Amino acid sequence: MFGDISKAEKIYIACGYTDMRKSINGLAALVQQNFQLNPFQNSLFLFCGHRHDRLKALYWEGDGFVLLYKRLETGKFKWPRNAEAVRSVTVQEFRWLMEGLSIDQPRAVKKLNTEQCFSL
């Protein structure tokens, strides 16, 4: 199906600024060379520019890339601008981002890391 990003196993965001003039080849090269990730894996890669009001999403569908572009008419994305080059986010964090919220919600209930739990 054309652009069915719901099948992506992982979601990555490129923290900081990305040159929004880049197309499929430029974004795929950025994923591979700068982030040392495989752009052909079943993952969604998100990029945001300086204005914070538009983003691009790159997704490999198995037979070709899909490039999605979103421009907000009002408001801005709360895009992380920290030093991390790339960050993996959950589906919930992706939803927050698309709704104009920060992906770091201080009051959200966080998933428990079961490896650090003790048995009762």
Task: Give keywords.
120 residues; 2 helices; five-stranded mixed sheet; Transposase IS66; alpha+beta; Transposase_IS66_Orf2; single chain
What would your notes on this structure say?
With about 120 residues, this protein is an alpha+beta fold. The chain has one domain (about 5-115). The chain has 2 helices and 5 strands, in the order E-H-E-E-E-E-H. Strand 1 (about 10-15), helix 1 (about 25-35) and strand 2 (about 45-50) form a beta-alpha-beta unit. The longest helix has 10 residues, at about 25-35. It comes from Dehalobacter restrictus (strain DSM 9455 / PER-K23).
Write a short abstract of this structure.
With 120 residues, the protein is an alpha+beta fold.
Structural topology:
Blueprint: E1 10-14, H1 24-33, E2 43-48, E3 54-60, E4 65-71, E5 86-89, H2 91-98
Protein name: Transposase IS66
Organism: Dehalobacter restrictus (strain DSM 9455 / PER-K23)
Pfam family, one: TnpB_IS66
Poorly predicted tracts of residues: none
Mean pLDDT across residues:
85
Query: What is the total number of structural domains?
Result: 1
Q: What string gives the helices and strands in order?
A: EHEEEEH
**What is the CA-based Rg, rounded?**
15 Å
Q: Biggest β-sheet: count, sense, barrel?
A: 5 strands, mixed
Helix content: 10-25%
Helical segment tally? 2
Principal-axes geometry comes out as: globular
Q: Strand arrangement, largest sheet?
A: 4-3-2-1-5
